[in-house]
Design goal:
The complex is a heterodimer of chains A (211) and B (278). Chain A has twelve helices and no strands. Chain A has helices at 29-38, 50-54, 65-74, 77-81, 85-88, 94-98, 105-117, 126-142, 147-155, 158-167, 170-182, 196-206. The longest helix of chain A has 17 residues, at 126-142. With 278 residues, chain B is of the alpha/beta class. Chain B has two domains: 2-112, Rossmann fold, CATH 3.40.50; 120-273, Rossmann fold. In chain B, the strands form two sheets. Chain B has a four-stranded parallel sheet with strand order 2-1-3-4, with helices on both faces. In chain B, helix 2 (44-50) crosses helix 3 (52-69) and helix 3 packs across helix 4 (78-93). Classes of the chains: A mainly alpha (211), B alpha/beta (278). The complex binds iron/sulfur cluster (SF4) (2 copies).
Chain lengths: 211, 278
């Protein structure tokens, strides 16, 4: 294998064919912003890849955890927000726990996921993004999350139902649901919390609404 | 002894059997668990993923309620425990506004660690009527209970011991293994089932290879995940117990098969074979 240093064309194999991205005007603006918002010293990363090696799902990610950190340093914001990585991440905290430089990788990825959720970029892993979204919707309706309501709400999302049919797992899902009901694991009714109003209010406030 | 109890949503639904076993165990240990008044969801992974402010604010509501009761919290669910501790940490940093009066000074215990303290182990041992002799188990801790150590306070996060000590106190034969804290993929399991399954199956396989007949857990998500996805060619069944279910079994002279009817992988044949159930 050729050395990538002597052959700079191979330095970014995964986006070969694309134009080389110059840092140019963006400078370290994005890096500083991310460091400021998360309180994490991202510059401390020395690309040892320990985070990626510890990650149980790195093989399903298009940008590996250590690369994600590098991308932040380079200011490649859109690539990160478009990646499968930010949705694939399980928040299992292996990367953070094992980084020799105390770079909180999981927090960085989580913060990018937050950013993506508030951007116009379509999530690469839509089913995962929609699941989180549905969870929050159910939470707001009753202050607690009842699994039966959660699954119903999730399957009622048009894209999700279509996808499950396409993958041919809808029948399996339904059978599983029936077994869960029979075993008494899915409860149709569970008590609500009185907090619904308060929670809705804070939720609107966090999204910049004046209430 | 009195503590406030934050059950979390799962214990009202999927993990209702966990709730019942906790109830029985704490009654037997004469520890008073007072459910937090009008508690609400901690937001779990979803709030954390999509709205960081909510991931601090939602647990803070429950912290505030417990502070009002002036009782430390014990949390049976690894995820809730992690979110409550995370929220406390962020409250101290004062970067999010919390609409409820809360200091974050209360102690949040994870239930396994609370019961694994030496005096607790002692009182557990005193109450064992039927030791789980000959039952070979591995304990599985997962992610959220132990990581990140800065939040969870676990110093032995690579080889946690809390459930190991409890299961051993109940007389079970606890086997060492390397997958105690490897992620089971529960959080991705619904939306991307094939990925979740690949992680879950690896854990089941390693548990079986280590010679375990059953897995002991404390997290409702880990339990349902490991319990439900057992189908493979080997057709082996490895029941997945909540650690309090085993405690309850050892505390009472006669166990009841009905306690385990919510399990997918039926543990009754195994328990009968070991003479632990009639
Ligand atoms: S483990 Fe830390 S230092 Fe190493 S590549 Fe990952 S973030 Fe960088
Ligand atoms: S937190 Fe995410 S990126 Fe880090 S090891 Fe876990 S799955 Fe991988």
């Amino acid at each position: 294998m050729q050395n990538i240093i002597s052959n700079p064309d191979q330095a970014h194999e995964h986006d070969s064919g694309e134009e080389r991205k110059l840092i140019g005007d963006r400078g370290d603006y994005f890096l500083n912003r991310m460091q400021g918002e998360t309180g994490v010293n991202i510059s401390a990363c020395y690309q040892c890849e320990r985070c990626t090696n510890a990650c149980p799902v790195s093989h399903f990610m298009d940008i590996k955890p250590h690369q994600a950190i590098r991308y932040v340093q380079l200011g490649w914001r859109e690539d990160l927000l478009k990646s499968s990585t930010i949705w694939m991440c399980l928040s299992c905290e292996m990367c953070t726990t094992y980084c020799p430089n105390e770079v909180d990788v999981a927090e960085i990825i989580n913060h990018l996921r937050n950013m993506a959720a508030h951007s116009s970029i379509t999530p690469k892993e839509k089913s995962l993004a929609v699941f989180h979204q549905t969870f929050l919707e159910v939470l707001q309706k009753s202050g607690k999350v009842n699994e039966f309501r959660l699954m119903n709400a999730y399957y009622s999302k048009p894209d999700i139902l279509k996808e499950r049919v396409k993958q041919g797992i809808l029948i399996e899902d339904l059978l599983l649901g029936m077994t869960l009901l029979r075993k008494g694991r899915l409860k149709l009714f569970t008590p609500k919390s009185r907090a619904i109003k308060e929670i809705k209010k804070v939720y609107s406030q966090t999204r910049g609404e004046i209430v | 002894m009195r503590l406030s109890f934050y059950p979390g949503c799962s214990l009202e639904g999927m993990a209702n059997d966990y709730a019942r076993s906790i109830d029985a165990v704490f009654k037997n240990l004469s520890i008073d668990l007072v459910e937090i008044e009008d508690w609400s969801c901690c937001g779990a992974t979803a709030a954390h993923s999509l709205n960081q402010a909510m991931s601090v604010v939602l647990p803070a509501r429950n912290l505030a309620a417990a502070e009002k009761m002036e009782l430390d919290i014990v949390s049976p669910c690894a995820m809730c425990f992690n979110r409550l501790r995370f929220s406390q940490n962020m409250i101290k940093k004062k970067v999010f506004d919390i609409p409820w009066p809360v200091t974050g000074d209360i102690r949040v215990h994870d239930m396994t660690r609370f019961l694994a303290e030496p005096p607790m182990i002692k009182s557990i041992k005193e109450r064992i009527l039927r030791p789980l002799n000959g039952l070979r188990v591995v304990c599985y801790y997962g992610c959220q209970m132990v990581r990140p150590p800065k939040i969870t306070g676990y110093t032995d996060y690579e080889n946690p011991q809390t459930m190991d000590r409890i299961a051993a106190a109940a007389g079970a034969q606890v086997i060492d293994w390397s997958y105690k804290a490897t992620c089971c993929g529960a959080s991705i399991g619904i939306a991307r089932r094939e990925i979740g399954e690949s992680l879950t199956k690896r854990i089941l396989q390693k548990a079986r290879q280590s010679g375990a007949e059953a897995i002991v857990v404390s997290c409702p998500l880990c339990q349902s995940n490991l319990d439900m996805i057992q189908k493979d060619r080997s057709k082996r069944h490895t029941p997945v117990f909540y650690f309090t279910e085993l405690l309850r079994l050892s505390f009472e002279e006669h166990g009841d098969p009905k306690w385990f009817k919510m399990h997918f992988t039926d543990p009754v044949p195994l328990l009968r074979a070991k003479g632990l159930l009639s």
